[in-house]
């Protein structure tokens, strides 16, 4: 599991009370060839492959669950000039 990305969801888990909700917007799985190309030529080019691999593989929902959240759901996907950004919701 990616260290920085996991900490990003693990720390908020300590702060969200029972019955609370977590909302995250991040690059998710790039589902088409066009958005993968946009993602690779922009985000990956600047942030590097190692730092963006969890995003490219769509690992964030698994990381959110591993941090102790439940009912993780991708509620929206927004297409941008740099790839698709996923909006995730999860509960405690």
What would your notes on this structure say?
By secondary structure, the protein is an alpha+beta fold. It has one domain (3-91). It is built from 5 helices and 3 strands. It has a 3-stranded antiparallel β-sheet with strand order 1-3-2. The longest helix is centred in the N-terminal third of the chain and has 13 residues, at 3-15.
Q: What is the number of helices? A: 5
Shape: elongated
Physical arrangement of strands within the biggest beta sheet = 1-3-2
Low-confidence stretches: none
Order of helices and strands: HEHHHHEE
Number of domains: 1
User: Which percent range describes the beta-strand content?
Assistant: 25-35%
Instruction: Let me know the largest β-sheet.
Output: 3 strands, antiparallel
Number of strands: 3
Distance between the termini: 21 Å
- The class by helix and strand makeup works out as alpha+beta
Helix content: 40-55%
Rg over CA atoms: 13 Å
**Averaged pLDDT, please?**
86
């Amino acid at each position: 599991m990616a260290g920085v990305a996991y900490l990003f969801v693990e720390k908020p888990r300590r702060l969200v009370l029972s019955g609370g909700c977590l909302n995250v917007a991040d690059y998710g799985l790039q589902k088409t060839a066009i958005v993968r190309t946009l993602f690779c030529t922009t985000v990956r080019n600047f942030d590097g492959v190692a730092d963006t691999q969890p995003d490219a593989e769509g690992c964030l929902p698994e990381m959110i669950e591993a941090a102790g959240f439940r009912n993780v759901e991708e509620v929206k996907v927004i297409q941008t000039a740099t790839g698709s950004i996923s909006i995730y919701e999860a509960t405690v």
